[in-house]
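User: 3-isopropylmalate dehydrogenase. Structure?
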Amino acid sequence: MPSYRITLLPGDGIGPEITAVARSLLEAVGPHHGISFDVCEAPVGGAGHDAEGDPLPTETLKRCRDADAVLLAAIGGYEYDNLPQRQRPESGLLRLRAGMDLFANLRPVRILPVLVEASSLKRSLIEAVDLVVVRELTGGIYFGEPRGRITTPAGERGFNTMTYSDQEVDRIAAVGFRLAAERAGRLCSVDKANVLEVSQLWRERVNTMAAAHPDVAVSHMYVDNAAMQLLRNPRQFDVLLTGNLFGDILSDAAAMLSGSIGMLPSASLGSDGPGLFEPIHGSAPDIAGKDLANPLAMVLSAAMMLRVGLGQEEAATDLERAVEQVLLAGFRTADLMAEGCTQLGCKAMGEQLLVALEGVWQA
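Assistant: Predicted structure:
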């Protein structure tokens, strides 16, 4: 029986609620497929600050590095907004990605037929949308130096540096090319090469790598046009390759094609070592503790962890089918609620997912 060490990071806000649902699904699907999980939980983000005075406690990072895979819920909360930058939850997340050398973020966007009407876009635009945003995760403006705030004779000034080396571009581009070759064979590289030197380097390196991938059709698009095209004709995209800042923005925009940011998982991967899997939504502190959270993206992140991180394809498919079954049965959380459907809270949705999972096995 294969056994995997899983580090769960419930984090803040709705994180503990959706983590409980995902854990219950993992505990159910594991034995059915002869898999055992050695699960530990660790604090991160605001929870890490509250427990250790650090949004990424040393022991948390160690447990993540020692795991076979890491499943993160969400970080952040209003009560941490006035902390110094290094103590804020977001700083802990950036340090976690850097500390695990997770340079490639994969954010798939697939429209489930049952949720077509939940999108703010017309059915004719989003039917059959199936794309992936490949976002570079440990470089760019979020990590570039120098950065900071200074006081000048003219007033206060803030500054950040967007920087990429050719090696950083090459390794994320390699991920994009490999994924495109496995999918529909189309890669669109997003940049701002008309005004940014860093984007000019990015585009040159992607073009250089394209010569070694004749099976992949490569195109380039400025980030502002890419944002527009995601809304105008999202089906034109297969793999979107982006830097850190542009990918952060575009992947959230793409998330709304599905009708709710509460539906999409993500994976953050390195060259080796464990991957980090998480829903792309935030901690939603306004609904935390009210049993209103949508746990489906967290469950789909667990499925992505099983497939991409652990190689357990059948178990991953079972979780995905359970999600589809509860939606087909008309169960919805508030963010997805539609006429004729039954609204459930987070805990009740978890219970229906377990029922659906049993149904998947009996079918």
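The chain has a mean pLDDT of 95. The chain has two domains: 1-102+265-362, 120-257.
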